[in-house]
Amino acid sequence: MVGYYIVVYDINEKRVAKVHKILREYLQWRQRSVFEGWLREEELTELMRKLSAVINEEEDSVLFYRLPSEKVIHSFHIGRPPDKFDNVI
Question: What family is this protein classified in (predicted)?
Fold first, then answer.
């Protein structure tokens, strides 16, 4: 089964680059700590396993939002979308 996910994170600076890199393997980077995209069940399981190996569950948080249907996907923004951040990678 395939689902559309929005993933946001709040990670300690020591681990943010690793988490960002893992998420970029699976999803589209939207801005700062926001990713989105389609994931198969196997991909979701693998992504969660990789993130769990990196984060500190006492300090860090990764939230997954699964949209119920592709019919509800609609996004828009105000202003120029971010294209580069100096503090990530």
Answer: Belongs to the CRISPR-associated endoribonuclease Cas2 protein family.
Q: Which domain holds residue 20?
A: 2-70
Question: Two tokens at 43?
Answer: 């991909």
Is pTM beyond 0.85? Reply is: no
60 annotated as ligand-binding:
no
Q: Tally Cβ neighbours within 10 Å of residue 3.
A: 17
Supply 65's token pair.
């939002």
Q: Which string of b and e fits 31-65 if b means at least 16 CB within 10 Å?
A: eebebbbebeeebbeebeebbeebbeeeebebebe
Among 55, 66, 71, 46, residue whose Cα is nearest residue 20: 55
- pLDDT tens track for 24-55: 999 999 888 999 999 999 999 999 999 999 99
Here the CATH number for the domain that contains residue 62 is 3.30.70.240
